[in-house]
Amino acid sequence: MQLLPSHSKNSVMRLRAVCSALCVSCIAGAAFAQTVDTPQTLTGDWGGLRTDLRNDGVDLTAGYTSETGWNFSGGGAERVRSSGQLAFGATLDTEKLLGLEGGTFQTTLTYRHGDEMDLGLLQQTLEIYGRGQTWRLTQFWYAQKFAHDMADVKIGRLTVGEDFAAASCDFMNLTFCGAQPGNIVGDYWYNWPVSQWGGRLRLKDDDRTLQIGFYEANPRNLERNVFDWWGCGATGVLIPVELGITPNAALNGLPGDYRLGGWYDTSGGDDLARDVHHLPRALTLDAPLHRSGRYGLYVMAQQQLTGTADGAHTTSGLTVALRFSQADTKTAAIDSQLTLALTYMGALPSRPADVIGFAIGRTHANPRAFDFSAIPASLQPGSEYAGELYYGFDVLGWLTLRPNLQYVIHPGGLRQLSDVAVLGLKAGVTL
Q: What is the pTM of this model?
């Protein structure tokens, strides 16, 4: 006798598979965590070679990040998808190698693979997916400090988000991951792993920083040829500016991080609603009006509220982070994003390095794209609301596991679509 329909059986089997993987990982982690002198990398110290190289100014790193999700509710067809990223890096200290004080050279090669969940969302539930499943030269730059470390410059192939609107990527939903402007205007602000030729100047005075960057705006950077450095096709320059304050004792002696930034793209973009004659495109169907520039601003505030810290590094307690980005409404199809995230380190006394994370966010589709459109207002996309809860297991010094639950209201900004729920697992290995 069939007690469950076939789709319900499949759901139960998928749930059992995901839960089994989590249980095995946690049990293994508990067992390994009891060992003594656990190496901080999976491959160890290579018989002391890694330490010797680091002492000589050469720091070699490698890591793998995987993300797996199952939409057990909403999103059309039920599916399980996985994506991953492999990264190899080398950091050279020029003072140790050449006697040149204050210099650093960084190169990073990345490879992404896997599948997206394809749930029709404004923001991906597997943030690691995207920008082509291919090899990329993600970093190839030189940085030099001067003026008694009060100023530094960086030039080469850079990712904008490593310096401007920089944020961690512990959550698995893209809404809460990486530099926020790249989430809403990703057609010209390229986040990791896409790099571009550019430079950045930063001035620092105690806990205050002011920086400005210049990055080549070139759609060819999205292509898959990792060594096509000198391809033509540049359309302009992306210029971000940021003012930051990072007091180590902002509240109750605990660290904070506050930033205000903005950007301007000289390459410009097509107007969403107007044609070349400044008339409604939806009525004339004529070529779009080209705007001479694209721009936006962002605000970020992060503050540790409870617990303890070692300088700017949280060692235990609750931290809150608020981020908001607004792009110009003339050219940006997604014009704003707002998120609030809470993280708590050391909730369990027996596991002081574990972290609980919870975040909610709103991504807004620009209604100007539908000015004078025949599409009814009820069918036009508006705001997509996402939430994520994760528990981060510090299994070993080189292995972290973050099972998570995501919930998305109004997928794609459409009110008529059913909410989406995703059970996920994010894992990181330092090789």
A: 0.88
Query: Tokens 């996920």 label which residue?
Result: 424
What is the H or E stretch that residue 334 is in? strand 334-345
Residue 204 burial (CB count, 10 A): 17
Three-state DSSP at 420 gives: strand
The arrangement of secondary structure in 6-430, i.e. its CATH architecture, is Beta Barrel (2.40)
- Work out the mean pLDDT of the chain and round it to a whole number: 88
**Number of residues in the chain:** 431
| Segments of 26-174 assigned E as strands | 58-73, 80-93, 103-114, 135-146, 151-158
Q: What element of type H or E holds 24?
A: helix 6-32
What is the tens place of the pLDDT at every residue in 144-186?
A: 999 999 999 999 999 999 999 999 999 999 999 999 999 999 9
Q: DSSP states of 131-163 as a string? A: S-SSEEEEEEEEEEEETTTTEEEEEEEE-GGGT
Instruction: Check: CB of residue 18 under 8 Å from CB of residue 426.
Output: no
Q: Where are the domains of the chain?
A: 6-430
Helix (H) or strand (E) holding 398: none
